[in-house]
TrEMBL record:
This is DUF1573 domain-containing protein. Pfam families: DUF1573. Residues 1-16 form the signal peptide. The keyword Signal applies. Keywords: Signal. InterPro entries: DUF1573, Ig-like_fold.
Length: 132
């Protein structure tokens, strides 16, 4: 019995070091990485306020922002129209303009859909407090 276990043990260890082609494929292609995922404006007035997020393509193929969504009409978004080459960094600018009735704390978001292999949207969050 002990001899059988000693014979099977190396075979089991051999399978543990096998690489999976599917895992390697997930690492290839475009990949979006931001310097941060949220911005806190703090206490602000009712004028327009802007935050900049640095987007880097850490993947192996060009990254394209294919679609964007905002949580409110009070959010304006400027993002790169041209593809980002691997290793390239560009700025995504998000502006928040509270309407004249807005007062108190707020929390908004932006969704960016890319051609990255994960297909999940990237979400950037904005928060703060509008004061008189």
């Amino acid at each position: 019995m002990l001899l059988l276990l000693l014979w099977l043990l190396p075979a089991g260890l051999q399978g543990a070091t096998t690489t999976h082609p599917l895992q390697q494929a997930d690492e290839e292609g475009p990949r979006a990485e931001f310097d941060r995922m949220q911005h806190d404006f703090g206490r602000i007035d009712r004028s327009r306020h802007t935050a900049e997020f640095r987007l880097t393509n850490t993947g192996t193929a060009p990254l394209v922002i294919v679609r964007t969504e905002t949580s409110c009409h009070c959010i304006a978004l400027t993002c790169p129209a041209e593809p980002l080459r691997p290793g390239e960094t560009r700025t995504v600018t998000v502006s928040y303009t509270p309407d004249r009735r807005t007062e108190g704390t707020f929390s908004q978001y932006v969704r960016l859909y890319t051609n990255a292999r994960t297909k999940a949207p990237v979400m950037l969050f904005l928060r703060g407090e509008v004061v008189r």
